[in-house]
Specification:
415 residues, alpha+beta, Bacterial polysaccharide co-polymerase-like, 3 domains, four-stranded antiparallel β-sheet, two-stranded parallel ribbon, 15 helices, elongated
């Protein structure tokens, strides 16, 4: 076996190693080489340490403010209260969900949405703060200075924002939560919110229909005068209109239930049975199966011919008024459940100005630079020793010169 000199690691002969020959370098040889070049290693490491210390001193302080929030829970007191009121919609709200394995992931994604981040960029003028010309670049810079941690163990979400000013860092962290609340207020996140939006639309439509019916009745009164109906005709009209309004409200309720309940749901089946029973009563009262507006049978003795138009308009008013009352109850119950269930998050620990900087970590920077400088110096010592050893080996030197000549030689086709 051939050995290297401890300083330049020369080869013991001038011939390239034959097949089966290997160079043997012991750990002791390497240590001797390092000790002979220790001055270079120490100086190089010291230079890295000095430069990193200067850079660490020039870096501005950064402060990180953190807030801890409790996201909405799956079931609320409003749902339990509605269940006590024997509402099929409430019992479904208590048992149904949105099909998300970890709801916290959805809230974290909403915090990182473009709408919330753009609101933060505009609120704190982050394009100027981060020296960017595009809003998208400001969003990326804000994302790099913020962190959202979803802890699956305790179910809490921790939001942190880093800034050069500790007070501004706390303000931005708390504002982050406020901007999320503004966004969540416009979205139907929970099942209760979906029901609330649905009944809100239906209630607005019922209110317009009631206003139109009242206006039509007023015009009819002005043209025909107020008609005094007997008690039998009035009772018949009120019964029919009440049944038709309850049927319409129940159909709306069943339509809402079908959006998140299967056909085998017992509450949905009970609602359909109630609907079928009311339709049968209306069919018996009107004398047919359709139960439309003009199907109510009144004799000429019960309603004079001159007051027939008034009776129809009054029936419309009673009908839409009953629908409006039923939908208003459902809407208020959905609002109560949404308020309890709450797409609103709860702040456990609001952000306060931090009293200790989060960066730069000067000790780590200097230590890391020292390690980098040391390994670069050691590597340089090994590489230069190996190159010197190759240069002293004549056979290797000839081959290197031949390789260099081949690389520099122009090809026949090359001009």
């Amino acid at each position: 076996m051939h050995t290297f000199d401890t300083e330049t690691l020369p080869q013991s002969n001038t011939m390239p190693p034959q097949s089966g020959d290997e160079y043997e370098i012991s750990v002791l040889d390497l240590l001797i080489l390092l000790t002979r070049r220790k001055r270079f290693i120490i100086i190089t490491t010291g230079v890295f340490v000095g430069v990193s210390a200067i850079i660490a001193l020039l870096l501005p302080f950064r402060f990180t403010a953190t807030t801890v929030i409790l996201p909405p829970q799956n079931q609320s007191a409003g749902t339990a209260l509605m269940s006590q009121l024997s509402s099929p919609m409430a019992s479904l709200a208590a048992s149904s969900g949105l099909g998300i394995k970890n709801p916290n992931d959805m809230y974290v994604a909403m915090f990182k949405s473009r709408t919330v981040e753009d609101a933060m960029v505009q609120r704190f003028d982050l394009m100027t703060e981060y020296h960017t010309k595009r809003r998208s670049d400001a969003r990326k810079a804000f994302e790099s200075q913020s962190d959202i941690e979803n802890n699956a163990k305790d179910g809490l979400i921790r939001i942190s924002v880093t800034d050069r000013d500790p007070r501004r860092a706390a303000e931005m962290t708390n504002a982050y939560v406020e901007e999320y609340r503004k966004l969540s207020g416009t979205l139907a996140i929970t099942e209760a919110a979906q029901r609330r939006l649905f009944f809100e639309e239906q209630l607005a439509q019922a209110k317009d229909n009631l206003a139109n019916a009242e206006e039509a009745l007023k015009k009819t009164q002005q043209t025909t005068g107020v008609i005094q109906m007997d008690s039998q005709a009035r009772a018949l009209i009120e019964s029919a209109t009440s049944l038709r309004a309850q049927i319409a409200a129940k159909e709306v309720e069943i339509h809402a239930m079908r959006s998140f309940a299967s056909d085998g749901n017992p509450d949905l089946q009970m609602a359909e049975q109630q609907l079928a029973g009311w339709q049968a009563q209306l069919s018996h009262l009107t004398g047919n199966r359709t139960g439309t507006e003009d199907d109510l049978i009144l004799s000429k003795g019960q309603v004079p011919g001159a007051g027939l138009e008034y009776v129809r308009k009054l029936r419309d008013v009673r009908y839409y008024d009953t629908i409006f009352e039923l939908l208003a109850k459902q809407f208020e119950m959905a609002k109560l459940d949404e308020a309890r269930q709450g797409a609103l998050i709860q702040v456990v620990d609001p952000a306060i100005p931090p009293d200790r900087k989060s960066s730069p970590k000067r000790a780590l920077i200097i230590l890391g630079a020292a390690l980098v400088g040391f390994f670069i110096a050691v590597g340089w010592v090994f590489i230069t020793a190996a190159l010197e050893n190759v240069q002293k080996n004549l056979a290797y030197k000839e081959r290197i010169e031949e390789l260099r000549g081949n690389l520099l030689k122009k090809s026949p086709n090359q001009p």
